[in-house]
Amino acid sequence: MTRINTAANPAGRTPGMGAEPPTRNQRLDRLPFNRAHRKLLSACGIGWAFDAMDVGLVSFVVAAVAADPHFALDDAQRSWVLSIGFLGMAVGAMLGGVLADRFGRTTVFTATLVVFGLASGAMALSWSLAMLLAARFVIGLGLGAELPVASTLVSEFAPATHRGRMTVMLEAFWAVGWTLAAAIGYFVIPSTGDWGWRWALLIGALPLAYAIVARLHIPESVRFLESRGRDEEAERSVRHFERASGVEAPVASPYRHVAVRPRTRVRALFSARYRRRTVVIWLTWFFVNFSYYGAFTWMPSLLAHQFGSLTRSFGYTLLISLAQLPGYALAAWLVEVWGRRWTLCIFLAASAGMAMLFAGSGSPASVIVFGMLLSLANMGAWGVLYAVTPEIYPTGMRATASGSAAAVGRLAAIAAPLLVPSFLAASDGDKSVAFLVFAAAFVVACVASLLLPERAGRSLED
């Protein structure tokens, strides 16, 4: 293990010789990526994967529930089961961000796991459409709150030179969860009879148990602790990460006796300083969500209609899902090479192109190839979007800003599945019109992303 002597400050001068001791955030920023970062990333990432597994599962569950004689959902009812979850995610994202800025990132992160774990179990036991919708809404509350909180927490512990890559790596756990959902959809739902979709949802309740692990192993954000005047806890947390890098005789940072900050209001995001970046990041989130959730929540049903087999559709969707991990891996590398803005823009442009090609795909081979390329490009964009959002705001409003951007995105995620039946009607049941609309939305997101500020390699604003 590399031994690092931090008796000197970043400028190479020792305290006591006219130099100010480094702040805790400076000490975190100059650390290499170490085992404490890996542990944090894994702990948050597992929760992230559970989120993805649940969102992915519902696309398979809806197709199976529609075929269940007890429910026999029509297209409009299917759309509502998909969209009601995103309504919950919109509310949850906004509430989760505000609560995380008030009560702490780790506390809210753990609570979200409990909420959507319990609700997944309730949805598995649903006996009516009303109960399906109610449970799905509550699941959305938990899911929506977790994602912006987890990305904020990871970004606040990541060293400046690794922050983009770490956040993209966190988002890469989405691919793990979505692939698990596709595997459950392909292997569990068709092979377990009428109860197949219920067993799938019971698997989705596993976050309830993981919440205990998360509470014990995920530290609270140093920046949040300092903003609340909890200096001793902040110092212990920094020392934990320094020890993981072999730091010898760390220099304690000065205590900052700060007044507790007032709660951040959403209107602060539209102050003169932050108005432009808020509008731009909201536009990007809105159109990325519209395209992604419109395309991928309906994909199993659309492919089942195109090829006449639910099982074949689930298999094709599983293959398409496997391309997500390479997309994240590519984005994790490029985000620190090209920067956030250009990496995001290029992935969104590629997503638009692949959506256009997927719109006209007719054979199984073309569906799989263009679907995988769309999946790769879209997931790369998602990774960068989660990296850039928390780092363009200061600590006091970071979780609120991330949550509000995610909430705006979820509004698009509500609308897109509801609009898909209209797109299908316009093309006699074919997927072409839907994916051409999604391609246009990717173009709008691409243009908006060019206006984002570039923060690669820079420390987070306190």
Question: How does the SSE layout of this entry go?
Answer:
Elements lengths: L3 E2 L18 H6 L5 H33 L7 H29 L1 H20 L4 H29 L5 H25 L8 H8 L3 H11 L4 H6 L3 H14 L2 E2 L26 H33 L2 H12 L2 H11 L5 H20 L4 H28 L3 H32 L5 H18 L13
Parallel strand pairs: 1-2
Helix pairs in contact: 2-5, 2-6, 2-7, 2-8, 2-11, 3-4, 3-5, 3-16, 4-5, 4-7, 4-8, 5-6, 5-15, 5-16, 6-12, 6-13, 6-15, 11-12, 11-15, 11-16, 11-17, 12-15, 13-15, 14-15, 14-17
Overview of the structural elements:
This protein is mainly α and 462 residues long. It has a single domain, classed as Growth Hormone, Chain: A, CATH 1.20.1250. It contains 17 helices and 2 strands. Strands 1-2 form a two-stranded parallel ribbon. It is globular, with a radius of gyration of 22 Å. The model is unreliable at 1-18 (pLDDT under 50).
Cα shape: globular
* Unreliable parts: 1-18
Write down the CATH topology. Answer: Growth Hormone, Chain: A
Strand order of the largest sheet: 1-2
Please indicate the count of domains. 1
Q: What's the total number of strands? A: 2
Q: What is the CATH architecture descriptor? A: Up-down Bundle
Concise account of the structure shown:
This protein has 17 helices and 2 strands. It has helices at 24-29, 35-67, 75-103, 105-124, 129-157, 163-187, 196-203, 207-217, 222-227, 231-244, 275-307, 310-321, 324-334, 340-359, 364-391, 395-426, 432-449, and strands spanning 4-5, 247-248.
